[in-house]
Amino acid sequence: MKLLEMNHVKKQFNGLEVIRDISLSVEEGEVVSIIGPSGSGKSTLLRCATMLERMDSGELIYLGEYAARDRDGKCVYAPKAELKKMHRYFGLVFQSFHLFPHYSVLKNITDSLICVDKLPKQEAVERAERLLAQLGLADKRDAYPYQLSGGQQQRVSIARALAKQPRLLFFDEPTSALDPELTVEVLKVIKELAKEHMTMVIVTHEMQFAREVSDRIVFMEEGVIKEQGTPEQLFGTENERVREFIGHLSGGSLLT
Fold first, then answer.
1. Measured at the alpha carbon of residue 82, what is the angle toward residues 56 and 198, in degrees to the nearest 5?
2. Measured between alpha carbons, how far is 58 from 67 in angstroms, rounded to an integer?
3. Within a domain: residue 144?
4. 136 is in which domain, residue-wise?
């Protein structure tokens, strides 16, 4: 079953085409990594998928429901009530954590569940505590973000996204703000989610991680998808540009 479809997406900023006619779909249970050089449009594509940016043209479909349609070359979005429902289908983990500094770890996770999703407080707390235990943060429920390492903050961000029980989880370079040791910590969490068949789309520059965790890897450059396929296909490609990019960033495995 397709959880996400993006068809002929285009997006520009001040006349500069950042995404030029991209189509991408994601099946339930699939892990898709998006790689490519800086400025290739990877993060913009994720922001369009999560409706943080409005597409200029193209289609955006979640579970067969249209969030946006193309009409005469223009993008027309569904009514707000429908979009609100579709927002519950996915979660997003940012590279810079985006935690509320004045909220405890527990409140960072439960606040949206209680205030937006109208979940009973006790149920929200129990859900948050289960996730914190799963992610090795049970003893940090009452801590504040400034008291946590970068890796711990990112794990809280992942817990917050998972607490919404999304069908699909997006990661926008989740380790780019972390040092190598903390990077390993966060990548192990994502790898465990992959083992549990969580559907994920991951923008990453960690080549070995992408190779190990992905069902499919998409290589973007200059606002288009230049190549995509299984990790074996991408890492064995004869496309000289893709080989150059992967070779430049590949190192030893970060995961044990």
1. 85
2. 11
3. yes
4. 100-164
**Residues in Cβ contact with 249 at an 8 Å cutoff, skipping those fewer than 6 apart:** 205, 207
* DSSP type of residue 79: P
Q: Confirm whether 111 is domain-assigned.
A: yes
Reported as type and span, the H/E element at residue 24 is: strand 16-27
Cα within 13 Å of Cα(144), Cβ side? 5
Task: State whether residue 142 is helix, strand or coil.
Answer: coil
162 backbone φψ class: left, alpha, beta (φ>0; ψ -120 to 50): alpha
Cα distance between residue 35 and residue 227, in whole Å? 10
Q: What is the CA radius of gyration of the chain?
A: 18
* CA pseudo-torsion sign 50, 52, 144, 255: positive
Domain tally, the chain: 1
Helix H or strand E segment including 11: strand 2-13
Q: Which residues contact 205 (CB under 8 A, 6 or more apart)?
A: 35, 173, 176, 249
pLDDT digits (tens, 9 = 90+) for 137-189: 999 999 999 999 999 999 999 999 999 999 999 999 988 888 888 888 899 99
Residue 90 lies in a domain: no
> Residue 133 falls within a domain, yes or no?
yes
Q: Are 230 and 188 in contact (CB under 8 A)?
A: no
| Torsion angles phi and psi, residue 53, rounded to 5 | -125, 145
Confidence at 255, pLDDT banded by 50, 70, 90: very low
Residues facing residue 220 across a β-bridge: 225
Whole-number Å distance between alpha carbons of 9 and 45: 9
User: What SS3 state is found at 124?
Assistant: helix
